[in-house]
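Section 5: illustrative case.
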């Protein structure tokens, strides 16, 4: 078989590989604490499951519109109005099978040889993977610990040139847990007005997981950018629905017909019944989100203090999401060596920083989407093997 050359440029998300390694050890009888996967450890809300079952009972079994049923798109716009007081036409909303397809389609719409796409580094690995796959030049925004890994508007604007087609941002950020406040995003949005040729993909998938009562600095705050703004969000993280494969995105009007073509060529439409569950999630009570945040707040403190208490480890306080991204080089190991030792000697699965960017050699990512007992035990085991 002769395979396409472009395949050599396609990357992956190593958290899934680490999960496979951890599962293998478990099958050999080892006890593993999983702090590697980026998914909340809660059941999806009961009312969402009920609404989905009802939709199945009611006979929603067939194909539906490729951009999503209108009721679901309207529920998305109602939620955007409620959360951000922004008015969005449901025709600009596309219901997707997860958050990932939005980044796949957005990057494919703009990426080709000669084009440049700016992305956060460290960042969600699929950005760089997909940019490289299209043949575009991947231009990293070096997110620095000295800046709490947060977004630096001047630095980002300085990376833009005539070849730049798309700027990808992710706030709150995976893997660093960094949260950038509205002040900085205002500055960036103001600066972006000078570059009307640059589209923006704002990945806001952690928009409901922000600590210390801070508000989501969404790009919906800037209607002047709407003609080149793509917002990625969804149900996976907010409602603990990662396995449902359900996401939503808002696109500039001019891109809708192209994105719908991608949907038709690729997945046809999102599962009909779960779109009714999706409506129930958006219109229903936020109890699950509130409970999750109560728990995440306690776990964040536990992991932040526990990691900083281990000799050779330094961790900044995460501001959003459910990740801590400590520097571990002080232990005498780089992130890769540290993660390997944690898995094999301490029975704790975590992800090396290099899974999120080549320069993050000194770091590892801990997901604190696990019980306090498991986090405490993991910290205890790691402290033992390190000290
Ligand atoms: N964007 C970021 C930053 C993520 O961390 C993830 C998942 O981990 C996604 C998007 C994709 O979400 P989904 O599981 O809905 O495809």
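Designed sequence:
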């Amino acid at each position: 078989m002769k395979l396409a050359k472009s395949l050599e440029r396609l990357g992956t998300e190593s958290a899934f590989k680490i999960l496979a390694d951890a599962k293998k050890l478990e099958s050999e009888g080892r006890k593993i604490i999983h702090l590697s996967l980026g998914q909340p450890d809660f059941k999806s809300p009961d009312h969402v499951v009920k609404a989905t079952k009802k939709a199945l009972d009611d006979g929603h079994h067939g194909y539906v519109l490729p951009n999503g049923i209108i009721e679901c798109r309207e529920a998305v716009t109602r939620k955007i109005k409620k959360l951000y007081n922004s008015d969005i036409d449901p025709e600009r909303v596309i219901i997707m099978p997860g958050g990932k397809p939005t980044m796949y389609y957005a990057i494919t719409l703009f990426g080709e040889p000669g084009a440049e796409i700016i992305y956060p580094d460290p960042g969600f690995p699929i950005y760089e993977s997909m940019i490289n796959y299209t043949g575009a030049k991947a231009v990293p925004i070096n997110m620095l610990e000295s800046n709490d890994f947060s977004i630096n508007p001047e630095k980002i604007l300085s990376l833009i040139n005539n070849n730049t087609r798309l700027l990808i941002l992710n706030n709150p950020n995976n893997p660093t847990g960094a949260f950038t406040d509205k002040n900085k995003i205002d500055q960036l949005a103001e600066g972006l007005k000078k570059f009307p040729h640059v589209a923006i993909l704002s990945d806001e998938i952690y928009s409901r997981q922000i600590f210390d009562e801070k508000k989501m600095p969404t790009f919906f705050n800037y209607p002047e950018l709407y003609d080149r703004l793509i917002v990625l969000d969804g149900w996976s993280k907010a409602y603990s629905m990662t396995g449902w494969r359900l996401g939503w995105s808002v696109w500039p009007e001019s891109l809708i017909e192209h994105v719908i073509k991608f949907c038709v060529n690729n997945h046809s439409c999102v599962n009909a019944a779960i779109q009714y569950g999706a409506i129930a999630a958006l219109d229903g009570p936020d109890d699950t989100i509130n409970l999750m945040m109560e728990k995440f707040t306690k776990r964040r403190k536990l992991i932040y203090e526990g990691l900083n208490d281990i000799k050779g480890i330094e961790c900044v306080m995460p501001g959003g999401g459910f990740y801590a991204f400590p520097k571990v080089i002080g232990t005498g190991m780089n992130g890769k060596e540290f993660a390997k030792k944690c898995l094999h000697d301490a029975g704790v699965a975590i992800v090396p920083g290099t899974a999120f960017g080549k320069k993050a050699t000194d770091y590892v990512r801990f997901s604190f989407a696990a019980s306090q007992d498991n986090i405490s035990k993991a910290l205890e085991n790691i402290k033992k093997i390190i000290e």
